[in-house]
Design goal:
The complex is a heterodimer of chains A (474) and B (98).
Chain A: H1 7-16, H2 21-39, E1 42-45, H3 47-58, H4 61-67, E2 74-78, H5 105-112, E3 116-121, H6 155-162, E4 168-172, H7 179-185, E5 188-191, E6 212-216, H8 219-229, E7 259-262, H9 273-288, E8 292-295, H10 304-319, H11 338-349, H12 352-365, H13 371-394, E9 397-401, H14 417-422, H15 428-433, E10 437-444, E11 450-457, H16 462-473
Parallel strand pairs in A: 2-3, 2-4, 7-8, 7-9
Antiparallel strand pairs in A: 1-3, 4-6, 5-6, 5-10, 9-11, 10-11
Helix pairs in contact in A: 1-4, 2-3, 10-12, 10-13
Chain B: H1 5-14, H2 21-38, H3 60-63, H4 77-81, E1 87-88, E2 91-92
Antiparallel strand pairs in B: 1-2
Helix pairs in contact in B: 1-2
Classes of the chains: A alpha/beta (474), B mainly alpha (98).
Chain lengths: 474, 98
């Protein structure tokens, strides 16, 4: 068996009788356990449940692959997605032993499509980070070179696919947390349109930005997973009742006449020269395949990081108020008053980056600063959304780098939060505008580290976005 | 804009966080640097721009329709209390407040 199997390859093994779900799941668990000391990509291995689910599928797998798009496929999900009675920590001590009573809609939809949950992936605590160094359970390592970070915050989910453990995984993306680790690990990562995938059962970070999406080794597999997890859910009032097309059948590879917008503002100061060269070569390849390259403008690009870190932290300070040591999660000992219970539980339960963001968000929302910071950011957010609306009058997809640099070394930015935030310049703006975007591998640096091309689509235009990525990939 | 230690203590109180002295020191420097960076937003004239509002994209009308008002099963007391750190006789407990 080759190191990295796609969904189609696993299904071929099932159809020919050369493998059973039990065998695939056993091999997957062996790989996960063998690599986890080195990579630290997993927080909980769902060994027993996965083995039982796989055994139950063995007898009928040859017919199941014809009716269930993910039949017998081992999957990993980020540890901020709830699976009933499976430990869900969110990378935090405050949820260190939390067993959710229900399953997230996206996870349930994967299981309904036949997937088998084999592990929960390590992540930056509460999805706050760009390197997966902020987990309360230790740093995740990039499988391409373990001196380097895998990106974040969905670092463990990216590593699960990049290391060849599973063909697909789920992450969440609030400001780039799927696309940037996909870029750093050399795989495909998709953030769908805001409202495309239900967030029911996703531990909230910033509710106007959060979205769940897939990692995969190929655009085809990302399309398969997107089809499975999309759709309206009455448990999430922000999920939208748009029809879910079969995204796989949209992959024709024909992009003749597709208008690809290139914003010069995303190719200027701060962009690594090797990344720039790779992304420009990728755009040339799209042109060679029949796309028409047009110049578009995203004139407020230099302000996006400031806007994002005000809005995301303000929402986080409110969302994380629920962690109080009363109804679930960690509780401090011997508190003498209710106020002391809250304060000490939160001080002992949260890590430094989470506290920093709660502090920044509380500041932005506090009396005397609300107008100058939070409301100002919301006004600039309206301008950013308008920039995208105007750009999409002139093009069908927009091409930029996913991140300004390849992966950086573990520890390199951990003492400088602002430097870490600045690396999010090309990804956060997509969440602020609510549009979908995908990162696909487009080369490597001289040090052998992957580089990602980001393609951005208009709202609910994932079919065209995925087809553009597929055409590039061929 | 400088963020003083007093400012940090005030924000921490609002956020129900009890910070150590070391955290207060490191946060005041780091938050000041971040806020100074954020202050570049003042270069933009936003007087005539309305704050962003969640925009109806896609089929918002049916997405946000109310469901019929019928009673449905929920978690139930036992499950709801199962993860509580200190439940007692069907209740969540907190330190004495009076």
């Amino acid at each position: 068996m080759s190191n990295k199997l796609t969904i189609e390859e696993i299904h071929n093994l099932y159809e020919s009788g050369d493998a059973t779900p039990s065998e695939i799941v056993r091999t997957t668990l062996e790989k996960i356990e063998a690599d986890n000391e080195r990579l630290n990509a997993y927080l909980t291995i769902n060994r027993e449940n996965a083995s039982i689910a796989a055994t139950a599928m063995d007898a009928d797998i040859r017919s199941a692959v014809k009716t269930k798009p993910l039949a017998g496929i081992p999957v990993v999900v980020k540890d901020n997605l709830c699976a009933a009675r499976v430990r869900t920590t969110c990378g935090s001590q405050i949820l260190g032993n939390y067993l959710p009573p229900y399953t997230a809609t996206a996870v349930k939809k994967l299981e309904d499509a036949g997937a088998i949950l084999v592990a929960k992936a390590n992540m930056d605590e509460f999805a706050m980070g760009s390197s997966t160094e902020n987990s309360a359970f230790g740093t995740v390592r990039n499988p391409i070179n373990t001196d380097y970070v895998p990106g974040g915050s969905s670092g463990g989910s990216a590593v699960a696919v990049a290391a060849g453990h599973v063909p697909v995984s789920l992450g969440s993306d609030t400001g780039g947390s799927i696309r940037q680790p996909a870029s750093f690990c050399g795989i495909v990562g998709l953030k769908p349109t805001y409202g495309r995938v239900s967030r029911f059962g996703l531990v909230a970070y910033a509710s106007s930005l959060d979205q769940i999406g897939p990692f995969a080794t190929s655009v085809k597999d990302a399309a398969r997973v997107l089809t499975a997890i999309s759709g309206h859910d009455r448990h999430d009032s922000t999920s939208v009742n748009e029809p879910v097309p079969d995204y796989l059948s949209a992959l024709t590879g024909d992009i003749k006449g597709l208008r690809v917008g290139v914003p010069p503002e995303c190719f200027g100061e701060g962009l690594d020269s090797e990344v720039k060269a790779s992304v420009e070569a990728a755009i040339t390849r799209l042109k060679d395949r029949g796309a028409e390259i047009v110049e578009v403008h995203l004139p407020h690009t230099k302000y996006v990081v400031a806007v994002y870190y005000l809005i995301a932290t303000a929402e986080a300070s409110s969302n994380l108020a629920r962690f109080d040591g009363v109804r679930y999660g960690y509780r401090t000992e011997d508190a003498r008053s209710l106020s002391e219970l809250y304060r000490r539980t939160r001080d002992e339960g949260f890590g430094a980056e989470v506290k920093r963001r709660i502090m920044l968000g509380t500041f932005a929302l506090s009396s005397g600063y609300y107008d100058a910071y939070y409301e100002k950011a919301q006004r600039v957010r309206a301008m950013l959304a308008n920039d995208f609306a105007e750009a999409f009058n002139k093009c069908d997809v927009i091409a930029t780098p996913t991140a300004p640099t390849p992966a950086f070394k573990v520890g390199e930015k951990s003492d400088d939060p602002l430097a870490m935030y600045l690396g999010d310049i090309y990804t956060v703006t997509i969440n602020l505008a609510g549009v979908p975007a995908i990162s696909i591998p487009c080369g490597a640096s001289s040090a052998g580290l992957p580089i990602g091309l980001q393609l951005i689509g208009n709202h609910f235009d994932e079919a065209r976005l995925l087809n553009a990525a597929f055409a590039y990939e061929q | 804009m400088p963020i003083t230690r007093t400012e940090v203590e005030k924000i921490a109180k609002l956020a129900n966080l009890e910070l150590t002295d070391a955290e207060k020191d490191s946060f005041s420097g780091q938050l000041a640097a971040i806020v100074e960076y954020i202050d570049q937003l003042n270069e933009l004239d936003t007087a005539n721009v309305a704050p962003w509002q969640p925009r109806s994209v896609g089929n918002a009308a049916t997405s946000h329709a109310s469901r019929d008002d019928v009673v449905e099963p929920s978690l139930g007391q036992e499950t709801a209390l199962a993860q509580a750190p200190e439940p007692d006789e069907g209740h969540f407990t907190v330190p004495r407040v009076i």
